[in-house]
Design brief:
Blueprint lengths: L5 H4 L10 E7 L5 E7 L1 H10 L3 E4 L4 E4 L8 E8 L5 E8 L21
Parallel strand pairs: 1-6
Antiparallel strand pairs: 1-2, 3-4, 5-6
């Protein structure tokens, strides 16, 4: 199979440019690591290889997490939300998840804290 299963594809609610929001969460701790975007091909490759593949809106191309940085995501689960417009990837993160080098993309700016 070289494309996304039609049963899965039919459930996705994509943006105008064909993308679905993907949230990566650390397995075991529930820590939210990052938010990215996937097109059908990125989702298919992720489901097939268990390596997180995303779509870069700025570069207009797919990228496998860690290909250049070595900071990979092994995917244990992929869940589709009830509306079909967001994916949850439960992953084991190796190294930093954020392109800035932070553990997560949510480390730098705390807007409200308990």
């Amino acid at each position: 199979m070289t494309e996304l299963d039609p049963a899965i594809a039919s459930r996705l609610k994509r943006t105008a440019d064909g993308l679905v929001c993907a949230v990566a969460q650390q397995r075991g701790t529930g820590e939210v690591l990052m938010v990215a975007w996937m097109d059908d091909a990125a989702l298919h490759e992720t489901l097939t290889t268990r390596q997180a593949v995303y779509f870069s809106r700025s570069r207009q191309q797919r990228w496998r997490k860690g290909d250049t940085s070595g900071h990979t995501q092994y995917v244990h689960e992929v869940r589709l939300d009830c509306d079909g417009d967001a994916l949850l990837l439960v992953v084991d993160q190796t190294g930093a998840a954020c392109h800035t080098g932070d553990r997560t993309c949510f480390d730098a700016d705390v807007l409200l804290e308990d």
